[in-house]
Amino acid sequence: MDLSKICINARTRSPWEAIDLGVVLARAWWLPLFLIWFVPAFIIFFSVSAIFPDYNWVAYLLVWWLKPLLDRGPLYIASRRLFNEPIGFWAAFTRLPSLYRHDVLAWLTFRRFSLTRSFDMPLTLLEQLRGKARGSRLSVLHRQYGGVAYWLSIICLHIEMFLIIGVVSFIVLMVPENIELDYWQLMLTKQDAASWLYNVFAFLMMCLVAPFYTVCGFCLYISRRIDLEAWDIEIRFRHLSAEFQKRQSLTTPNAKVLPVVLCLCLTGWLYLVPQPAYAQDTAYPAAAGGMPEVTEASPRSVLAVNAKKHIVEILAGEEFHQIETVSGWRLKNIEQKREEEIPEWLITLIEKLIKLFAGFDGPDGVWQNPMLYVEYVLWGLFFLVIAIVIFRYRESIRFYVRQTRKGKIEVEAPDSLFGLDVRKESLPEDVPLEVLKLWQQELYREAVSLLYRSLLGALIHHHQFEFSASDTENECVSIVKVRGNDELSDYVQKMTSLWQQLAYGHQLPLTAEIESLCSSWTEVFPRA
Length: 528
What we know:
Helices cover 65% and strands 1% of the residues. By secondary structure, the protein is an all-alpha fold. It has a two-stranded antiparallel ribbon with strand order 1-2.
């Protein structure tokens, strides 16, 4: 796979934008994609219809069941044409037997009803993964993209149904009004030609939608790989490398001599042309060597001031001040309150269940009180849904519990983070006082460093946050946000932003900001 030959712009896309790209590519490559799906499907449909003429629905059902195999032809063509490999219908048709061999049993049995089939198929056809390797790969690909892959299958299914209904409705509208027909009875009559016509239309609509479904799922897969493997960066580096090699190949002995000749000519010109002399007067005060000093009015100073203004204007632009709003669930309370008494809602629920099942008379009582048994079924479904949700999100629940419960897992606190000493004994007793002293002595970086070190130490030793030595500043902010304390989260985020601007951007904070953080210290950390 040569990424430099890719025919699309390899950049990060949203999942829905990737589906739009799949529709565009399917329209551009429509004929070979349609033929590679239609020809084998038509052979199966025609053969089974000829063998079972009285059961015409068997042919349609068989083609529908074999969709996972038929989708591999369009996927193979799309995967080759995406990288500018010219492949047509006949070349792909000869490869169909080898394409259909991979994981036939799995895709026609327990994977047949997967709603992410078009998104998962490249793992079988292109990467040829199986077992644990396929499972781990799927778990990575489905993050942020799995839900859209589900919706792609549902939308294509509805489009196929709407097309069938539209064609049948069009035929009905073309029937003259003076002819009275019972269309419902006509469609239910299996021996009638209308049933054959319906199956043929359903088969054709399935052939029309299948290439779009396959290519859209493939573009979802490609977009996810671009996100994970940074194809855009790799392609850019390859272009830069190719351009550099091209320039190196154009460098000849004459081209190497040319810069030397130009330098000699320029040196001779400087000696021959008279240079301006500066008089010793008040307009141009002389400096050492007879050259003018650089003053505020000199051209060099003016250029420096203009460049600084330009840099400040660029940094003040929207590109450097993007704000992203992230929403999600979080626990509200920080401190865990131990309640020895059993909650009232739990007692009420248990009493309700005891009272409910006390009236259970076995299967014989279904006809006497059917609504009671309906209530049994609903309660069973309720507990089943709760169990499924807990099992589905068990990793997230375990993460929240681990972050909110103190003392459950003892983790050794790190001695340093980001090169800063966060040991308890290295921090002063009165943090705001020491920070303000350093700030008044114009030791700005030391003051901000002490305040940020004290912040990390207070989070580790007083609030029992579990940071690892490999965590970044933003990861520490995310861990604090999980607890759900808005006041603490806002303080940590503000202090981290101020520290990053000073440490990496070399931008000093305002005195008012430091004084505000110091005055809020005792409110946020009363024991620190």
